[in-house]
Structure formats: C-alpha cells, structure tokens
Write a structure and sequence with these properties.
The protein is α+β, with helices and mostly antiparallel strands. It contains 5 helices and 10 strands, in the order ααββαβββαβββββα. The protein has 2 domains: 50 residues, no CATH class; 142 residues, tt1808, chain A. A hairpin with a 2-residue loop joins β7 and β8. The chain is globular, with a radius of gyration of 17 Å.
Length: 200
C-alpha cells in the first residue's frame, strides 16, 4: 500500500527525477486505495496518470446539449456514455466527455469498461485542453481505429471532426463553425447544428 501512495504524486507535470509508467490494474488499485482523493479527475494515457482540467460552465452546457441530441438520435442503436472510461489497451484508459457506443450483444453482462472497438464516436469538450486533445488524444484515438472523434472547442465556438483513422493519426480533419451542421458517420441522416452545442 505504501508503494502505491508513494507514486500518487507522479503526475504528468511533475518535475521530479522519477518517472514510472502504470497499467490499468495498478491505476485501479491506486484509485481504490484513495490515492486520487485530491485529484478526482484523472485518466491513464500511455502509462501516465494525467490530471484533467476542471469543468467550467460552457463545458458542462456543451456536454449536456450534445448528450440530449445524441440520446434522442441514437435511441435503440447506440448507448451514449458520458465522462466514463474507454479502455484502449493496458496502458491507456481515457475518460472522454462523450462516447457513442455500439450496443453489446448481451447488455446485462457488461462488466468491463467499453473498449475502442465499441466506440463509434468519441467527443472531447475542450476549454484549456485544446492543444493536449489535438496533439495527444486525437492521435491516440486514431491509432486504435476509432472511426470518428470530435473536439468541441467552447472558446472558439467550433467543432473539429476527425475521420479516417490510421496508425499515424486521422487523415480527414475538418472544423465546423457555429452556422454549420455535422452528420455523424454512425448516424446518417442526423443533422447536428453546431450552434446548438457551442453557442456562447
């Protein structure tokens, strides 16, 4: 237990000389031991424990608006997961703001966190984390074959859509402004008004 607590201070921004990478088993053991009590919003990215930015009002509004839209549009076809873990491998388990998940064959026996193969759409809502989401999380989602990912930039009032994943990143990237609409790949025929998500 002591060795777990000793590593609790090793976050991404640490300037100390020691650096230890973790796997999801260690990550969960640390959470169960209360290591993250002072840092309730953390995620595991390529073995590193990342402290997530606080959630502000515009962020909350964007998540709620998109949740309402997608729950209605995807009813019976997908689950909408809000700020829950998405396991990519044994060293990465991010917590996207929203994931559109393919329904499991047996919905009553789902015990493990959803995995990349379950995700049809991943959404990150960004305020101070735009650069991090762009440089780190989008390439990570692409590497694991998630067909579509979005960054909702609440400050710029825009949504950047990433499609056509490859091991090196997404090949198709387009930013949509307030007056535009997006049709998610997983929901053909569903028009989402950008202004309904990001209006300041």
């Amino acid at each position: 237990m002591d060795d777990i607590r000793e590593t609790s201070s090793i976050l991404r921004n640490s300037n100390g000389p020691h650096r230890k990478l973790f796997d999801v088993t260690e990550f969960y053991r640390m959470a169960e031991a209360g290591v993250f009590a002072r840092h309730p919003r953390v995620e595991l990215i390529e073995g590193e424990i990342i402290e997530m930015a606080p959630i502000g009002g515009l962020h909350i509004r964007a998540v709620m608006a998109l949740n309402q839209i997608l729950v209605l549009a995807a009813a019976g076809r997908f689950w909408v997961s809000i700020q829950n873990p998405l396991r990519l491998d044994d060293s990465s388990e991010p917590e996207p703001d929203l994931v559109l998940l393919r329904l499991p064959e047996d919905r009553t026996r789902t015990k493990e966190p959803p995995r990349a193969a379950d995700a049809a759409l991943v959404v990150e809502v960004a305020h101070t984390s735009v650069q991090y989401d762009t440089r780190v999380k989008m390439p990570l989602y692409a590497r694991y074959g998630i067909p579509e990912s979005w960054i909702v930039d609440v400050d710029a009032a825009s949504i950047t859509v990433y499609r056509s994943p490859t091991h090196d990143g997404y090949e198709d990237i387009k930013t949509y402004q307030e007056a535009e609409r997006i049709v998610p790949l997983a929901l053909p025929g569903v028009l989402i008004e950008v202004a309904d998500i990001v209006t300041n």
